[in-house]
Amino acid sequence: MAKSLKDIKLEMTTKFVSYNVVKTLYGLTEGKTFEDEFSLVSFENILFDVIAYPIYLMGLLFDQHEKEMTEKLRDQKRGRLTWYRTMALQYQHGFDLVTDSDIFDNTGATQDQITASMIIKNASVNDGEKPGTIVVKIAGEENEELAPVPLDTIPSIKAYFKEIKFGGNRISVVNSLPDILYLDYDIYINPLVLDVYGVSSKTGRKPVEDAIEEFKREFSFDGELVLEDLDNKIQAVEGVEIAHRKLVRSSYIVPEINGYGPPQEIEVKKVLESGYFATPDFNGINYVV
Hints:
Layout: H1 5-18, H2 20-26, H3 34-37, H4 43-75, H5 81-89, H6 111-117, E1 122-127, E2 133-142, E3 145-147, H7 154-164, E4 170-174, E5 179-189, H8 207-218, E6 224-226, H9 227-235, E7 240-251, E8 253-254, E9 259-260, E10 264-265, E11 269-271, E12 277-278, E13 285-288
Parallel strand pairs: 2-4, 5-12, 5-13
Antiparallel strand pairs: 1-2, 2-3, 5-7, 6-11, 7-10, 8-9
Helix pairs in contact: 1-4
């Protein structure tokens, strides 16, 4: 782990004032620190700042490089759940695999064709309830929003996983419409900033709704939806004095009925069935002066 900028400079300056030649040249007092002897605006202090910064920056770069290499090695270890996720994101629709491999044959294809074929934009992989079962949740993208991949591609995706999977593993692919989030909030506002409809006097937009949409885009796919995080996101909006959450419910696709089930209350947190969510309207957002 990289040393802090302060620690790097301290090491150099401590060594500097310990040399006898420096003590004699500057007339330093024994036992006093560099900070005791040199002012913040002194040439020596500025010089050590200039020297310490690139050393600090280089340490950060090495740390980032090590982190990236560790993650790549972890994700490329065959058979791990993270490896299955990597393979999901590398799926290319319409391309065949090189014989006896898990690599797609891109012979003669342009980069645009390759990019367009990579229809899985996000994925998560977890152990299923039954031993040996692996659940792969996937999502595509439509109008820069997460959405199910086209249904007619699912047979090919399942065939791909059947080809690359390890013996004994059973792959279950989940490709679902988003969970629907129903939000009921009382938003107490500063009427000098927002009007009774939640419209900003500065921008003409509804910043609370914008914040919720931003929260949706920032949400980690198949992560845990924590309502307090959503509360904090709304509370941070300019003009919002109190974000009072009354009720949050979610509804998800139930395969047996091929449609959304009844909304269920989320009390504190929830892992979404589809891995992501949508807010079809903001009718439950009530602005209070």
